[in-house]
Amino acid sequence: MKLGVYPSRKTIIAAGVGYESDIYYFNNPYVTLNTESDVKFLEINDNQPSEGTCKTRLVTRYITFPVTFTYMIRPDWGAKISLIPGLNHLSSHTGMKYKIENDDNTMKFSDNPKDFVNRYKLDLRLAIRGKYFGFFIQPSLLPVFVNNDKKVYPIKIGIFI
C-alpha cells in the first residue's frame, strides 16, 4: 500500500507499508548460536550432526514503513531516495533453520534467537529508474544482530523492471 503527495511536477513524496523476508545463507554447513555469555555470537560448529549433511540459514521477517522522495529528471527517468524503517516479526518461521539430509530422508529443525536478532531495521535505498527498468543500492543503517561480538550491516543491490 502506498500513499503519495505531488508537491510539484518533478517531485513525489510517498509513504507505504510493506513486508520483507531476508534469508542469510552460511558458507559453513553447521552454524549455531552461542548464548552462554552476555555477549552472544554465531559459532561455526565442528560437531556437525552425524545423521548426514547439514545446511544452515537465518530467516528474518519485517513489517516495513518506507518513505520515498522521488525527483523526476525527465518524464520517464527519476532518482529516488527512501528511508525504510522496519519492525522484526518473530514466529516459528523465522530464526536459525537447519536442514540435515542423508540418503533416506530429510530432517529439519530450528532455533529462534529472539534476543540475538535486532527487533528493528533501518535501510537507506538509493535508486535510479527509467521507463522500463531501474537500479538500486540499499545499505542497512542498523546491524542485523544485537548483543553480539560483531556488527553485520547487509547491503542489497538489484534491478527492477
Structural class: mainly beta
The whole-angstrom Rg is 20 Å
> Largest sheet, if any?
11 strands, antiparallel
Which stretches are low in confidence, meaning pLDDT under 50 for 5 or more residues running?
Answer: none
Helix content estimate: under 10%
Q: Please report which band the strand proportion falls in: under 5%, 5-15%, 15-25%, 25-35%, 35-45% or over 45%.
A: over 45%
Order of helices and strands: EEEEEEEEEEEEE
N- and C-termini, Cα separation? 19 Å
Question: Shape from CA axes?
Answer: elongated
SS elements, strand count = 13
Total individual domains: 1
Q: What number is the mean pLDDT?
A: 83
Query: How many DSSP H or I helices?
Result: 0
Labels describing this entry:
161 residues; mainly beta; 11-stranded antiparallel sheet; two-stranded antiparallel sheet; 0% helix
Write the layout of secondary structure elements.
Layout: E1 2-5, E2 11-16, E3 18-25, E4 31-34, E5 41-44, E6 53-64, E7 67-74, E8 77-88, E9 95-101, E10 106-111, E11 120-129, E12 134-139, E13 155-160
Antiparallel strand pairs: 1-2, 2-7, 3-6, 4-5, 6-8, 6-9, 7-8, 8-11, 9-10, 11-12, 12-13
Structural account:
This protein is mainly β. 0% of the residues lie in helices and 58% in strands. It contains no helices and 13 strands. The protein has strands spanning 2-5, 11-16, 18-25, 31-34, 41-44, 53-64, 67-74, 77-88, 95-101, 106-111, 120-129, 134-139, 155-160. The strands form two sheets. Strands 1, 2, 3, 6, 7, 8, 9, 10, 11, 12 and 13 form an eleven-stranded antiparallel β-sheet that branches. Strand 9 (95-101) and strand 10 form a beta hairpin. The radius of gyration is 20 Å and the shape is elongated. The protein starts with a strand and ends with a strand. The mean pLDDT is 83.
